């Protein structure tokens, strides 16, 4: 994707030294576009924990490079296993991270120690390239769904405008490129379809307000920011044609873990007959988990993310302010699970399917 006409991926190897990696500091968006240099395992782990880098596919790719960086310092088997375990523990809910590290280890365990760093960079690069290809395919499959809605509305005498609602950020800044939930929207816009996006603010970290709105605006996609509780009202009044979200983990039976608040959007969509689609690469499917509510670990983050807000004042300076009484504690579960029964379908790189074991296996028969 492009920022002011310049093409970027969300992670890349530094061209100057050929080994450190670069990412955008997502905690600084949309106020400033800061590029961070990550040079070792610890800076990568901190970037993932602090959400300087976030998004299930992207943290998997960055963690893969983190293991490559650690092997530059110590390529022994003991160090490799230790550093892999440390990186896997940085965020517990998104399955892509563990998947990427496990894939790296499969390749590296049978590689001589002297060659491990070089091979690790190669494998991390492949993970990135495959993520881009998968997300582009997701975009094309999702585009067909958006086009179908536009054509139906035109047949019914309407303008053909498609109003989509999304929650959190599942755009190119959450992946290596293209994004998951936003990829079909970008493609629809680029194809000349009239699309408009309702962007949930996504409390408490406001990824929708800070990241999704920034992405869509930079690409020229029409959008409107919503408070998190407004989506159901818009659905009741026919203002939403389709909900499309990303996910951090999908179970074998189609349950979906995504940013906190997604479950409530799915309930509102079901009550109002609005299709609720989830876009994901196959790396996000956890084939070992069936019951998402019972089995998916939900990350609990600091309560300060709820009791404090950061924003830009009229003078341009950034300020962090408390919005709750000093003696009030806050709970902060970062994700919730939407049961498969509330999901219209899944959009993957291999096509669309029902949110069910049979649906997923129809696209991934090798997992039977």
Characterize the structure shown.
Belongs to the EIF-2B alpha/beta/delta subunits family. MtnA subfamily. It catalyses: 5-(methylsulfanyl)-alpha-D-ribose 1-phosphate = 5-(methylsulfanyl)-D-ribulose 1-phosphate. Catalyzes the interconversion of methylthioribose-1-phosphate (MTR-1-P) into methylthioribulose-1-phosphate (MTRu-1-P). This is Methylthioribose-1-phosphate isomerase. InterPro entries: IF-2B-related, IF-M1Pi, IF_2B-like_C, Initiation_fac_2B_a/b/d, M1Pi_N, NagB/RpiA_transferase-like. With 368 residues, this protein is an alpha/beta fold. The protein folds into 2 domains: 127 residues, translation initiation factor eif-2b, domain 1 (Four Helix Bundle (Hemerythrin (Met), subunit A)), CATH 1.20.120.420; 229 residues, 3-Layer(aba) Sandwich (Rossmann fold), CATH 3.40.50. 39% of the residues lie in helices and 19% in strands. The chain contains 12 helices and 18 strands. It has a 7-stranded mixed beta sheet with strand order 8-7-6-9-12-17-18, sandwiched between helices. Strands 13-10-11-16 form a 4-stranded mixed beta sheet, with helices on one face. β1 and β2 form a beta hairpin. The longest helix is centred in the middle third of the chain and has 40 residues. The chain is globular.
